[in-house]
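Open question from group meeting: does this chain pack into something compact, or does most of it stay loose? Before anyone orders reagents, we agreed to write out a predicted structure and look at it together. Recording both the input and the output here so the notebook holds the full record.
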Amino acid sequence: MTSTPDFRELAAAHGIELDRDPSMLRPIGSTAEYFSANARDASGAYWMLKSPRRGDVQAQSRQEKRVLDHVRGKVPVVVPDWQVHSDKLIAYRVLPGVPAAEIDPLMGELVWRLPQASVPPMFADSLSEAMVKLHWLDVGAAAAAGIPVMTAEQSRARVRQRMDDCNTLTPVPEKLWGLWRKWIDGDAFWPDFTTLINGDIYHPRLFVNADYRVVAIENWADAEIGDPASDFTLYFAAAGREAMEDMIVRYERAGGQTWGRMADQAEMYYWASPIKFAAYAMRTGDVSHLMSVKNMVHRYASMLEDSGYGE
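Structure tokens returned:
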């Protein structure tokens, strides 16, 4: 699908009568995977409406639905309850609270709802508690529910393969490639266990109440049994190293399992972001995405040069 769908027509076809007031149906842009809109129905209830853009997203949504059904009620936050799920429409009641940050559609920067001078302890503590609950969920039960399973060895091997694939798509500059090699070969970075992870712990996906308590987490498309450090990577990207290290301390205090180089592992996933994008581009086969891999690789290589990280 290349153009925005008629959400009013889609909703009606799936049994949702929207408010006739056109201002109560508000498209909220699109991602690479979905067209999205907020809407109010005839009874006054508010909905999130999402329409998959491609067939592979439809398949991915079925996987996300299995994750949502498994974690709902097992973690101390609200997760989306898909009351409509078809290949054309996903619909669920809007989540409580507001996003901790939003992405400015023009500048691509985060617009914060959290106080930035001093992030409220309630935010970090409630998020760390939710992550601990998630990471301690039984791996066998998650696997039985159809959630993808990666052992520690498989997780590391996948990173190695993605590094090679990315380097095949576009040669990686020497310094960035050297950092990746040091990481993949450095045993101290890598945990010897895996947990159920969300895969997208990022402030725009975290909904907070008036006290800045995390009350809902929206996106679960990347959930799997994998490396728990990866759940701290986007937190690092948004808030920085010091905030991430503080979160790991709180996470450990709440009962989370850590290791000596967990913070370094989480940051390294950030510096290796191009390999994940390259894997996504190869999966979709989208020429524009494949062409963007080179730009992303060189952008991260330039940032690495400027940062002095790994020297």
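Observations to bring back to the group:
Residues 28 and 37 are 5 Å apart (CA to CA).
The chain has eleven helices and twelve strands.
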